[in-house]
Structures are given as C-alpha cells and as structure tokens.
Amino acid sequence: MNVYDSLKIVSILQECGYRVVDVPEKACLFVLNTCHVRKKATEKVFSDLGRLRLLKTGHLAPKIIVTGCVAQALGVEVQRRAPWVDIVIGPQALHKIPLLLEDLEQKRPCLCLEGSAAEKFKKSFHAPLPEGRVTAFLAIQEGCDYFCSYCVVPHTRGREFSRPIESILEEAHAFIQQGVKEITLIGQNVNAYCGMDATGAMCDFGTLLRRVAPLPGILRVRYTTSHPRHINESLLHAHATLPQLAPFIHLPAQAGSDPILKAMNRPYTRADYLMAIDKLRTVRPDIAFSSDFIVGFPGETEEDFQETLSLVKSVTYAQAYAFKYSPRPGTPAASLPDQVPESAKEERLARLLDILRKQQQDFNRQSVGKVVSVLFEKPGRHSGEITGRTLHFQSVIIKAPQSVIGSCLPVRIIELLPYSLRGEYTPSTA
Ligand code: SAH
Ligand code: SF4
C-alpha cells in the first residue's frame, strides 16, 4: 500500500513541477512515507529523520514531509521529536500536499491529519509511472473494519472504503496505456470489496475481477491482501473462469490455534481457514498460497505454536511471511497479560521460518525441468540478465537482452536458487 501511495505522491509532486533526483544531496524536498505496523518500522522513521536533519542545514535547506501511518498515529510526537519536519500529513490527505507546500511560508510547521479516502481516490494518477513499468499496484480500497486486536491499521488508515469501479477502471486504463501488463489490486481486505458501478449498483470483489481481468492489454491480474472470511462463490467463480487471474493467493492465517485466533479477533477458526484453502484448490487445482503469521502473540503457548506449525504443514505454502508479535500502542493486545518473552518469540520465529523456507524450496523445486510462462519485469542483478515472475509469483532469472522486458515468454527452469529459479528461453515451445 505504501509503494502505491509513494508513486501517487511522486505523481502529485510531478504535476507541481518537482522531479525525482538520484541522490539525497540534490533534493529540495524529502517525503518519508512511513509504516507503523511493527515497532521496528516506526523506529526507523525517527532514525531517518535524524539523518535528514543534517541535510536540512545544507545549501538547499530541503523541506521535509512525513506521511503514512506514523504521521497519522504520532503526528504531534513527530513534530516534538523532530521539529525540523515541515509537514506532517496523514495517508488519507496526500492530495493536499501541493496546497500545504504553497502555504508553507505562512503555516510552518504544518500538521494535517484530516482527509477522506473518497477525496484521496478522486485524484488518480496523471503523471507517468516510472519508465518501463511492467507491473503496477492499483488500490481498490483504503482502511479496514476488522480491528484485529494486535493491529494499528484500522486506527491509522481509518474505516474500510471501497473505490467505485469506474475510477478503478480509469486508473487501470491509464496503467495499460503506459505499458503495464500485470495489475495487482490492493487493499487491506480486497475480497471484502463492495464498490459502486456506473449504474449505482454495489459490486463485490468477484464482480470487480470480472471487469478488470478482460481489459485489453492485461496479461495477468493479482490481488492482495485477502481475508479468509470472504472466500465466497463469486470469488471462487472468478478463479474458475478468468484465465488472467493468477493462481496464487496471499491468504494470511496469522495463527493456527483457535484460542489465539479468537484472542487476535480474527473472525474464523483453523477449520474455516483450511476449508477456504480447500474450496480454492477445488476450483483451481494448481493454486498456490502465501500467508502471514505472527508468533508470540500474548498468551501463545508452545501447544498453540505447534498448532501454527501443523497448519503450515497441512497447507504447504509456496512462500510466506512470519513476524514476531510487536505490541502496538493503543491496540487491545498490547495490554493483555501473558506477553511472550522476546527469547521465546525469536526461537519460535526461527523454527517457523525454517519450515517456510523448506516449503518454498520444495515448491520451487517442482518447477525445475518444466516450461513455465514468465512475465519479465526488470534487469537482473548481473549484466545480461533479466528477471520476471511465474504465475505462481516465483522469481525467475534468465540471460536475455533488456528488450525482452515486458514480454511473457515460455521459459525452461534449469536450476533451483535459494529464493528464486534460473531458466532459459525456449522459443520452440512459444
Ligand atoms: N490486512 C492484512 C494485513 C495488514 S498488516 C491482513 O489482515 O492480512 C500486514 C501483516 O503484518 C499482518 O498480516 C500481520 O501478520 C502483521 N502484523 C500486523 N500487526 C502486527 C503486530 N502488531 N505485530 C507483528 N505483526 C503484525
Ligand atoms: Fe490489521 Fe486485521 Fe485489518 Fe488486516 S484485517 S489490516 S491485520 S486489523
């Protein structure tokens, strides 16, 4: 979501005559788009601000804007701890940046935490995406109504808002015209999407997918993040019938133990989650899964953690993310008794990551020797190489000229790498 918002900020600023520079010393304006989801991310903002303070005294005396969820949650504290910041602005108010920059002479420092998601989305991307983009995120939703007991997002991003279908399609068209071949629809719970179409009817996520996937020029559609609660018939139908819809879903489980899921205020049981996975596998047998897990949630015992491990083993993920529980100010879980000691969190994280890494390797190993379709996105790390992704979101590296970027080609997978695959172009099967 922040990657999307950051590009939007660039687009808004380009319209006011700014351009992106390659080194900090050349900048007359810095925008820090921040994340508050775990403590480490928040701390990073303050250390970055410390570094920027030094540049502030340089000859360009750059202006500094802090936005994102840290701005929304800790606006006044940001101003107190870093008085050299010029503008603190919440993530729903990004469209106001040009106005606030204009007024800065009179109104500094500026704190702007009021904005509405509807206003924010009225402002579409007008300035071009960075050169050569093959894939793009497209936000269809802002905020979240779930209030999981550990999470700051509903507090910083506000209530769930679904963008009208026409505005989503307009942005998709703009991306396609710039050469984008793959769109990832993003939001906190995309499959809870409920947005208006041109006739005023409310549409669910499956319906939105049926409108976006067939757009001429689009080769692939993905979405993230989805919620296990909303795997409904309409979404299953989309997976069964839309060839552009990638058979890869990020479906965060968070934990495998029912008492912990309940304490997390996640509205499903382990059995519900496994049933959702089964339904998706039934309509699309080659579907692969990714997930998020939190270890060391307050009250999590070794037995609870074992339930998470057994869930992971029964699903078998293509890849997944795991985090140590991080108590966030203002969330109910932060004041629960039975906080798990750091050492136990670390130990559980290591065990979980070990299994997830092996599952990713096993999943990737199955592709070796096969010919898979890869959409090439960017140059590789070594010269003469380019990288792209399979339908299952595996990263593939091949030797090929840069002109191939933007094409979707059949590739024979020849080698398993630690987190990716090496392949070679197989024109004969094209
Ligand atoms: N809306 C998405 C995820 C948003 S946050 C969903 O519900 O799945 C991304 C991930 O960060 C979450 O899935 C969760 O695993 C993790 N996360 C959120 N709050 C956290 C916290 N307090 N400590 C550790 N991880 C957290
Ligand atoms: Fe946070 Fe839960 Fe909402 Fe995801 S569903 S953003 S984890 S509150």
Describe what you observe in this structure.
The protein has 430 residues and is an alpha/beta fold. The chain has 13 helices and 20 strands. The strands form seven sheets. A five-stranded mixed β-barrel has the order 16-17-18-20-19. The protein has a four-stranded parallel sheet with strand order 1-2-3-4, with helices on both faces. β17 (385-389) and β18 (395-399) form a beta hairpin. α8 packs parallel to α9 and α12 runs parallel beside α13. The longest helix is centred in the last third of the chain and has 24 residues, at 342-365. The chain starts with a helix and ends in a 5-residue tail after the last strand. The structure holds S-adenosyl-L-homocysteine and iron/sulfur cluster. Iron/sulfur cluster (SF4) is lined by residues 144, 146-148, 151, 153-154, 188-189.
Q: Give the overall average pLDDT.
A: 94
How helix-rich are the residues, as a percent range?
25-40%
Q: How many runs of DSSP E, i.e. beta strands?
A: 20
Distance between the termini: 35 Å
Radius of gyration: 22 Å
| Molecular shape | globular
Largest sheet entry: 5 strands, mixed, barrel
Portion in beta strands: 15-25%
Helix count, per DSSP?
A: 13
> Biggest sheet: strands side by side, in what order?
16-17-18-20-19
> What small ligands are held by the chains?
S-adenosyl-L-homocysteine, iron/sulfur cluster
- The structure class reads alpha/beta
- Oligomerization state: single chain
Low-confidence stretches: none
